[in-house]
Amino acid sequence: MDQINKAKSISIWIFIVPFVAVNACLIITTQFHTFMEMYYGINESEQYKLDNMFPYIDGKASISRTARFFPTYWIFKPAMFLTSYLLIKYWLYNKKIFNYLDRQTENINKFVYFGIASAIALTLHSIFLGIKIDNDFYKLFRRVIMFVFIIFEVV
């Protein structure tokens, strides 16, 4: 069945695209401070620099911390939009696979709903990443979107 091969290849790209984007943002944020100095100025860029850290081990920075400032959001946001698109395609292919294997299953639409909803939540999170609005409702909205993304992925 062709749908299985498509779902397999998309799942590989769903891993590769964010992995490359996150690590590129991490390298730019920790190693190439001149990009931030050119954009923000030498004095102001100090708040965006990260030095002497390896977040996979010491946990000194989050993914969104490394990807919310210039120039890293030019890498991270398009990569997350592409990942969201691939996630939607992945769940639609899986729906076809589930329907082919067992048409009697009633929960297929629930799987697809939560999968596509998580992709939409990822898109919303990516849109609002790096936008600074000093409003408690906005901050809560961003946290709820991230929470919804994680919950829908787990479900």
Structure description:
The structure is a single chain. The protein has 155 residues and is mainly alpha-helical. 75% of the residues lie in helices and 0% in strands. The chain has seven helices and no strands. Helix 1 packs antiparallel against helix 5 (73-101). The protein is globular. The two termini are 26 Å apart. The model has no long low-confidence stretch (mean pLDDT 79).
Oligomer: single chain
What value does the average pLDDT take? 79
Structural class based on helices, strands and sheet pairing: mainly alpha
Percent helix among the residues? over 70%
Q: How many strands, which pairing sense, and closed or not: the largest β-sheet?
A: none
Order of helices and strands: HHHHHHH
Beta content comes to: under 5%
Number of helices: 7
Count the E strands. 0
Give the termini distance in whole angstroms: 26 Å
Which of globular, elongated, flat, extended, rod-shaped describes the shape? globular
Query: What's the gyration radius in Å?
Result: 18 Å
Low-confidence stretches: none
